[in-house]
Amino acid sequence: MSIISSSQTHKSSSQRSKRRKSIQRKNQRRIRQRTEFQKWRLGSINISTAVDDHRLEDGIRLIEEANLFACTLQEVRRIGVGSCIVEGESYDWEVHWSGFKRKREYGVGIAIRVMPGIDIGEIKCIDERLMTASLTIFGLEVKVVSAYAPTNEAKDSAKIKFYQNLKKIKPDFKHQQLLYTGDFNSTTEAVRKQSCVRAGKVLENIVSNDNGERLIDFTRDNNLSMLNTFFKQPWHRLITWHSRDKKTKKALDYHLSSDFLRQYCTNCRVYNGFKFQSDHRLLVSEWRTPKTKLARFVKRKKGKPSVKYDLTGFQDEAMKANFQDAVKTTLENTQFDDCSD
Predict the structure, then answer these.
(1) What is the pLDDT of residue 273?
(2) To the nearest whole number, what is the mean pLDDT of the chain?
(3) Full-prediction pTM beyond 0.85?
(4) I need a surface site. Which of 82, 241, 262, 339 has the fewest CB within 10 A?
(5) Cross-strand pairs, 141
(6) What digits encode the pLDDT tens for the residues 55-99?
(7) Domain locations in the chain as residue ranges
(8) Distances (CA, A) of 108 to 49, 78, 151, 191, 296
(9) CB atoms < 10 A from the CB of 67, how many?
């Protein structure tokens, strides 16, 4: 029989108390990490032209007013490949572009807000219609694609080249996600009908132009989701292009993502209040993404266990005959309504 002194008892209780508090702090840390999400917004706009610095600064000012964290630009029409910093009173934006070497035509760009939490990786300029930016946005590794597709009246060779280059874009590493944005010059009724276009879904009675069919095929072949079609919006929040006479209105711009990334998208709509010097409107996708690995964990609900019936009794001929007689008697005693006219 051992005798424990009062000092030893006090010491052991103090150790248990410290251990209990340590476990509580660890659990609280895990709960906090599991609920750590960051809201951010990504936009795309066919800016029509950003040849001079004044037009580019006006566009960045409107992007800043829209509270975006990054925005892809189409029809930038700047020569060659380049970058610059646009500074405002309370903001800094890093702008990259890709265009022809000698002529001011087409061109794409990406504007990225300079702020803590956003790390800018490799910027890859593919041609005058495609460029990518590898970003780390509050722990989420994503490669943003700025795309400007040929018009529906363009030659098939130009369309084939564009989608061939688009398909070549791959993640740089395993956990990097792809996010395609831009002016695809595609029209499809799937946007107006909110058909939730994604891989594996069969679309019926959906009318699209040639570019629209190519875009839907690209979405299916690469297991992507067309974010414009997943959120119920009035038609004026889906229109991205207005003709000069305001009579013709179309949805030409799209945001595409993987199914994994789509689960963190909370909205995708057009904002008409920002008056860019363009016939296009600003398309914005809103996100709520996990900042930690624990936050990505989804606790699955346990469903009710399915009832399993024992059918081995039907191997007995006597039991089988009794069951058949019981069913026959029940059917004979049941009165059915006469449905004949």
Answers:
(1) 92
(2) 86
(3) no
(4) 339
(5) 136
(6) 999 999 999 999 999 999 999 999 999 999 999 888 999 999 999
(7) 37-296
(8) 10, 9, 15, 24, 33
(9) 11
CATH number listed for the domain at residues 37-296: 3.60.10.10
* Two structure tokens written together for 192: 């107006």
Q: Poorest-confidence range of 64-68, 95-99, 200-204, 288-292? A: 200-204
- Please state, as a whole number, how many other Cβ atoms lie within 10 Å of the Cβ of residue 145: 22
What does the DSSP assignment read for 190-258?
HHHTT---BTTPPP-S--B-HHHHHHHHHHHHTTEEEGGGSS---GGGT--EE-TTS--EE--EEEEEE
The confidence band for 130, taking pLDDT boundaries of 50, 70 and 90, is very high
Nearest C-alpha neighbor of 223 from the set 284, 178, 265: 178
Q: What is the bridge-based pairing of β-strands 70-74 and 81-87?
A: unpaired
| Token output for 297 | 């964990």
Which has the minimum average pLDDT: 89-98, 249-258, 323-332? Answer: 323-332
Q: Per this entry, what is the length of the chain? A: 341
Locate 288 and state its tokens.
Answer: 């709520």
Q: Are strands 81-87 and 92-98 parallel, antiparallel or unpaired?
A: antiparallel
Kindly report the number of other CB atoms within 10 A of residue 122's CB atom. Answer: 10
190 Cβ contact list (under 8 Å, min separation 6)? 197, 203, 206, 208, 216, 226, 229
| Conformation bin of residue 77: beta by default, left when phi > 0, alpha when psi is -120 to 50 | left
% helix, strand, coil for the chain, step of 5: 30, 30, 40
Q: Residue 246: left if φ>0, alpha if ψ -120 to 50, beta else—which one?
A: left
Run of H or E including 55: helix 53-65
